[in-house]
Design goal:
Layout lengths: L1 E4 L4 E8 L7 E7 L5 E10 L4 E10 L5 E10 L4 E10 L6 E11 L5 E10 L4 E11 L2 H9 L4 H17 L5 H18 L1
Parallel strand pairs: 1-3, 2-4, 3-5, 4-6, 5-7, 6-8, 7-9, 8-10
Helix pairs in contact: 1-2, 2-3
């Protein structure tokens, strides 16, 4: 899918994914106009043998364009995320700002996360950041919550909510934040 964002237009894309898909999907964002803006927040909660293969490319073509892509994945059972991200800032896109991050939390030794964000910067006057992390559930945090009388499943839910919420709270649209939080709370029934 290709999305073209024109001058002075701000576009926000948010998604909460519980079921995987089989074929690799591609999302291409083109920041075509000056002061165009793209914000993306994806939450992935994988279970069973669900796979989530996708590519996201954000191409800055105009000056003063801004993009932010934030992906958080929590993986149970044998679920798998395979994401490739590219941010390209072309030579005419001076004074642009961009960030791309994907952080994955593994709840199973059989779950897998392949996260690969990349930057391609073709101009000098840019603020660009990218990050990736893959980690197991923090046993100390889980133990701390359980030692306070919180049952294991509830403690896990609190840790998952905290993991996702640090980026959900950055979404500028507050009603969209609440929709994402409701989806997260509702999805807990799947793993209880």
């Amino acid at each position: 899918m290709d999305i073209y964002i024109q001058k002075n237009v701000s576009f926000t894309l948010a998604g909460f994914f519980l079921k995987g898909w089989n074929s690799r999907t591609h999302l291409n964002i083109f920041l075509e106009g000056e002061y165009s803006r793209f914000n993306c927040s994806f939450c992935i909660l994988g279970s069973k043998k669900n796979i989530f293969p996708f590519d996201i490319s954000v191409i800055h073509r105009a000056p003063h364009s801004v993009s932010s892509v934030v992906i958080r994945s929590v993986l149970f059972d044998e679920s798998k995320v395979d994401s490739r991200g590219l941010v390209r800032v072309e030579k005419d896109a001076i004074d642009s700002t961009t960030s791309f991050s994907h952080h994955a939390l593994l709840f199973s030794e059989k779950s897998t996360a392949i996260v690969f964000p990349a930057l391609e910067i073709l101009t000098d006057s840019v603020a660009a950041h990218h990050a990736a992390s893959v980690a197991q559930l923090d046993a100390d945090s889980l133990w701390y919550l359980m030692s306070r009388g919180i049952p294991r499943k509830n403690a896990e839910l609190l840790l998952v909510q905290g993991f996702f919420d640090q980026d959900i709270q950055k979404i500028e649209n507050h009603s969209l934040q609440e929709i994402m939080r409701k989806k997260l709370r509702a999805s807990h029934a799947i793993y209880a």
